[in-house]
Each structure stands twice: as C-alpha cells, then as structure tokens.
C-alpha cells in the first residue's frame, strides 16, 4: 500500500490523538496531506475535550476502605448520590505527585522494588524535547523551559538545556508572572501555599524553611493521593516537612494549612523562613539569564505562542532545567526504603504495601493530569525544576 | 539526576517509543497476587486504574454516587474473578469491561440505551462537513461541555478511546461489537459533537 496515496486510518488518527508515536510513512503523509491534517486536528480536539472531562477523576479514599471492608465480610455500603465535583478545579495533580514523592524521600533513589534506580537509563529524551519543546496532556500546549536569553519587544528567546533557542511570542492575553522574594506579610488567610521545612513525628506540625505562595490562578489543588489502605498522606507528608493547601488562622508565630482532604497542619514561621511569591510581570520586566518557563501553542515556524510565562527570578542555579526525574529530597529529609514506608494503619497491620507510586520517567509525565491548564503546567515546571 | 550523556550513550540510542502499556506486566502480577488473596494488590490496582474506570463510568452514568458504587462493585468483582483473567486483553480494558457489565446490571436505562441505540449511532460515517470546522475552533472546555450533552453511546465510545486510551480493537471488545461498528459509532459521535458545537456558533 503506497502511503502517499492513502489517507491515515481512523486507528492511526485516534492513536495519534492519544499521543502514540506515528511511523515515518504516516508522519510523512501527514506532512503533505491537508485533509489528514484537518482530520488529525479534529480528532485531537475531540480527545482534548474527553480528557478535560475525565481528567482528575479519582475514587474517594473511603471507597478503597469500604471495598476492603466488604471483602472482609462487612455489609456492603451504599453511597448516596452527591453532586458532582467541579472538574475544572482539579488542577495541579502533578505538582502534588511531585511533592508527595519528594516527601517519600525515595522515589528518585529507589525503584519500585527497592533497588536503586539506574538514573542514566530510566528516562529517555523524546523527539519534542530534542526540539526544545516538551509535550503535555494537552495536544495544543507545549512547554519550553530554559534560560531567558534575550527579550525583544513582546518576544522572548529561551535557551533550553539542550542548547536550543526557542522564540516565544507573548500578547496582551499572555499571563506573565515572576517568582520573587516576599515577606511573611504576604501570607494571608485564603492564600494557597506550598511549605517545605522540618516536620514532626506526629505529622501535624511543620517548621517552615520555605513558603511558596501559589499564583491565584493556580488555586484549586486536588487532594493528595490516598496512601494504601487509607493512610493519611497529608500527615505523612507533614511528617517529612511538606504541606500544601489553603492558609487560615494566620498569627505572629505562623499559620494553619488546610489540605484538600481537610487535614489541618500547623506551620510555624520565623525570621529565617523564606517566602516566595509570584507577581504579575511583563516581557520587558523579565530578567535575562533566569530560569523561565513558557506554555503555549507551537507554530509552524518553530515559535511558541505563549498562554503563560513564568520566571523564577530567584534561582541562581547555573543551568536550571526540567527534571527527568523527581527532585531529590531536600537536605535533612530521611531517605527511607520502601519496605519501611508507608506505615500501615494501626487497625490494619495486614496492609503493608510493597509498591509505591511510580515516579515520572519522562518530562511530559510531570504534566499528567493537568489537561489544558497552562498556569498549572507552568507552575509545575517552575516548581519541578526547583528554585 | 544528571544523567544526560553521563553514561556515554548518545541521546539517540536512548530514545525508545512510548510503551503502549508500561505497567501491563505489573498489572498481570497484581491480578496473580489478588488470586492469592493479597489485599495490597487490590489497593495498588485501585490506585492505578480506579480514576480512569471511575471517569468512564461517570461519563455514561452521570451520577457521582452511583458511579462510585459501580466502581466498588467492579473492584469486588475483580477481587472475586481475578483468576478468570486470561491475559487476552490489557488488564485495564478487562476491568472496564467488567465495570460496563456492572453498570448495565444496575441500570435498566443504560441497558436499554446501549442495546437499542444501534440504529441511531451505527449509520455509516458521513464525509466531514462544514460543521467539523467548529471542532477546530472551540476551546477544550466547550468541547467537554458539548460531550456531556451527547447521547450515551456516543459519550461511551469517546470515553473508551480518548479517556481510557483503548485502541479501537480493545474498544470493540469492551463494547462487544464488531470493529466496524466502533469506527462508525466513533465517527457518528464526532459528527454529533461538531453539530452541537456548530449550533453554539463555533463554525462561524
């Protein structure tokens, strides 16, 4: 069958919309066939709609417990109909996964079976990355991450880690923010924050070393994944010095974080606590040489029309970049082997999980579950790269 | 962390195609452990596929509480029936097929719709029309809203292919219809979607 004369099949078009690689002949045909390109765009649009509708749908933690109880002979419980949850609010799942995995303090060190991960072989740069662009779940959104090389009017040139220069265009509708140092005064009731510091064994307090205030548009973080057997992941994370959620009860000594699962963690602050916040910015205010992330639609000419640009003005890393793996745990975090984590709940010693969540292996895995939320994607990229 | 090129391998040598189902071997292993009565394996399976299966049930059932009950029925059925997994399909599509049967058993309305809508949905696909332009112009959110308004069979097939990421052959197996029916139903679903978006003004 000659590819030049035959259009892409429905199998090929739907697989393409699902992100499957296309063989060279099909790709070549797509490059020359206007009809197939239009078809691909339409299937991609339908696929994006479905994914937006289904992304972030997670069974409530209690459901797993009830299922296990039913297996153990408990009477089957029935769940009264409830109003659906707002799906659009299910944003930065990847950021949470990152934090949780970092909180475990082991995902970048140990594989699922407890053997050290072969870092060199466990991840692969993909074609998009080679071109300086990283894919996301959203067909039309790509990510460029790198150092801001130069600004020219409303255009930016980012130098990626693999030495590609990518031109990013911004417009009046591009959301541009900069991460800058803030003060404790910036933490107010209702802020959404990520806190890193020193936890306590009780898992209800964190002494903050760093508080990052999320941009307003990135609010609505989902619940942290539930630990096997219904363990409270928020407390497990807090024990390891991480928490995130909405701020309440601000006082001179700190504040309380209400996590998405309603667990409350008291955070204490001091004069040595660093506060990081995002402020609105413009292309002319961004600083050259700083780590910058742009999320937008790629054009045929290799440029990226940005929906969101975020810059980490604080980072003094020589070459910040998107991690292929999760960040290594911050200093002071215990590296605990999977066999010792997580603790089984007191009432269910039979549940000693063997497998932990698998860490992302490819850059695009960082953005899984974020759909087409360009702010959440950019925020995740900025946080994932550290700073 | 700093692995790029560190081992002397060229980047090209490290490029590998995205595995269609990176966890398939693990999934089968989880099912074997479930057969052996290992509850942690069921928890792991829940974590790995619960969200996708719940989303698929939710697409057709449209009631969150009921969807969760059906997911629980499904996982209990997986617990009891893990030994019957023959490895002929991916574990995910096997679970989704169970979920579909559970939903059908629970909902007479669902059964009536899915069985009887063949005459509506399985007409031969038409050529792309002017309405298809609406699909390209609408934002993902508008497309998502329009999908909600589609008929059950259309929502179901779109969910299986793009939400659960099944191949068309896997979708045919889950729906228990010929492959050709899946193709025409999928094309009909997209046409209905484009029509709905066009009516909302996106074709202009």
Written as H for each helix and E for each strand, in order along the chain, the element string of chain A is: HHHHHHEEEEEEEHEEEEEEH
Q: Mean pLDDT of chain B, as a whole number?
A: 79
Number of strands of chain B: 0
Q: What is the architecture of the largest domain in chain B at the second tier of CATH?
A: Orthogonal Bundle
Strand content of chain A: 15-25%
Structural class of chain B: mainly alpha
The main sheet of chain B comes to:
none
**Element string of chain B (H = helix, E = strand):** HHHHHHHHHHHH
Counted by DSSP, the helix tally of chain B is 12
Number of helices of chain A: 8
Q: What Rg of chain A do the Cα atoms give?
A: 22 Å
Report how far the terminal alpha carbons of chain B are from each other. Answer: 50 Å
What's the short story on this structure?
Chain A is α+β, with helices and mostly antiparallel strands and 387 residues long.
Descriptive report:
The complex is a heterodimer of chains A (about 375) and B (about 200). By secondary structure, chain A is of the alpha+beta class. Among the domains of chain A are: about 10-55, no CATH class; about 180-225 and about 230-275, no CATH class. Chain A contains 8 helices and 13 strands. In chain A, strands 1, 2, 3, 4, 5, 6, 7, 8, 9, 10, 11, 12 and 13 form a 13-stranded mixed beta sheet that branches. The longest helix of chain A is centred in the first third of the chain and has 21 residues, at about 35-55. The radius of gyration of chain A is 22 Å and the shape is flat. The termini of chain A are far apart. Mean pLDDT of chain A is about 70; it is low at about 80-130, about 220-225 and about 325-360. With about 200 residues, chain B is an all-alpha fold. Chain B folds into 2 domains: about 25-115, RNA polymerase sigma factor, region 2, helix turn helix motif (Rna Polymerase Sigma Factor, Chain: A), CATH 1.10.1740; about 125-200, Orthogonal Bundle (Arc Repressor Mutant, subunit A). In chain B, about 70% of the residues lie in helices and about 0% in strands. In chain B, helix 3 (about 40-60) crosses helix 4 (about 65-80). Chain B is elongated, with a radius of gyration of 20 Å. Residues about 1-20 and about 110-125 of chain B have low confidence and may be disordered.
């Amino acid at each position: 069958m000659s590819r030049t004369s035959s259009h892409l099949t429905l199998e090929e078009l739907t697989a393409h919309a699902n992100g499957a690689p296309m063989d060279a002949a099909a790709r070549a045909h797509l490059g020359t066939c206007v009809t197939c390109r239009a078809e691909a765009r339409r299937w991609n649009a339908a696929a994006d709609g479905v994914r937006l509708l289904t992304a972030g749908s997670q069974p409530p933690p209690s459901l797993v417990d009830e299922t296990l109880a039913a297996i153990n002979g408990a009477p089957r419980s029935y769940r009264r109909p409830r109003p659906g949850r707002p799906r659009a609010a299910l944003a930065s799942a990847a950021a949470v996964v990152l934090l949780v995995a970092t909180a475990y303090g082991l995902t970048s060190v140990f594989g699922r079976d407890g053997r050290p991960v072969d870092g060199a072989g466990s991840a692969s740069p993909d074609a998009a990355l080679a071109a300086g662009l990283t894919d996301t779940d959203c067909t039309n959104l790509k990510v460029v991450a790198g150092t801001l090389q130069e600004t020219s009017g409303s255009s930016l040139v980012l130098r990626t880690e693999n030495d590609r220069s990518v031109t990013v265009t911004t417009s009046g509708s591009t959301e541009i923010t900069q991460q800058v140092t803030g003060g404790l005064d910036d933490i107010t009731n209702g802020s959404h924050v990520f806190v890193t510091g020193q936890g306590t064994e009780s898992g209800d307090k964190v002494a903050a070393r760093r508080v990052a205030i999320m941009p307003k548009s990135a609010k609505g973080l989902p619940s942290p994944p539930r630990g096997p057997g219904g363990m409270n992941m928020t407390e497990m994370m807090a024990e390891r010095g991480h928490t995130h959620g909405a701020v309440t009860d601000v006082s001179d000594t700190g504040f309380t974080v209400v996590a998405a699962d309603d667990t409350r963690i008291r955070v204490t602050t001091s004069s040595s606590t660093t506060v990081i916040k995002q402020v609105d910015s413009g292309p002319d205010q961004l600083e050259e040489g700083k780590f910058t992330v742009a999320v937008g639609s790629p054009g045929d000419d290799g440029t990226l029309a940005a929906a969101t640009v975020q810059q980490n003005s604080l980072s003094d890393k020589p070459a910040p970049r998107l991690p292929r793996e999760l960040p290594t745990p911050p200093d002071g975090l215990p590296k605990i082997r999977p066999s010792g984590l997580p603790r089984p709940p007191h009432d269910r010693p039979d549940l000693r999980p063997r497998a932990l969540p698998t860490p992302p292996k490819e850059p695009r895995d960082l953005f899984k579950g974020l759909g087409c939320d360009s702010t959440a994607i950019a925020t995740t990229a900025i946080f994932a790269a550290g700073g | 962390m700093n692995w790029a090129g560190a081992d002397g391998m060229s980047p090209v040598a490290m490029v590998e195609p995205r595995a269609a189902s990176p966890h398939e071997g693990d999934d089968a292993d989880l099912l074997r452990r479930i057969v052996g009565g290992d509850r942690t394996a069921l928890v792991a399976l829940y974590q790995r596929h619960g969200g996708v299966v719940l989303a698929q049930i939710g697409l057709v059932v449209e009631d969150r509480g009921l969807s969760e009950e059906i997911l629980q029925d499904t996982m209990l059925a997986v617990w009891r029936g893990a030994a019957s997994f023959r490895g002929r399909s991916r574990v995910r599509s096997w679970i989704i097929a169970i979920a579909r049967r559970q939903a059908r058993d629970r909902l007479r309305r669902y059964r009536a719709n899915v069985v009887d809508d063949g005459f509506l949905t399985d007409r031969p696909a038409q050529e792309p029309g002017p309405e298809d332009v609406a699909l390209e112009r609408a934002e993902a959110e508008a497309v998502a809203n329009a999908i909600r308004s589609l008929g059950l069979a259309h929502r179901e097939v779109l969910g299986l292919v793009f939400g659960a990421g099944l191949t068309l052959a896997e979708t045919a197996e889950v729906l228990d219809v010929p492959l050709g029916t899946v193709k025409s139903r999928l094309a009909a679903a997209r046409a209905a979607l484009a029509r709905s978006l066009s009516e909302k003004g996106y074709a202009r």
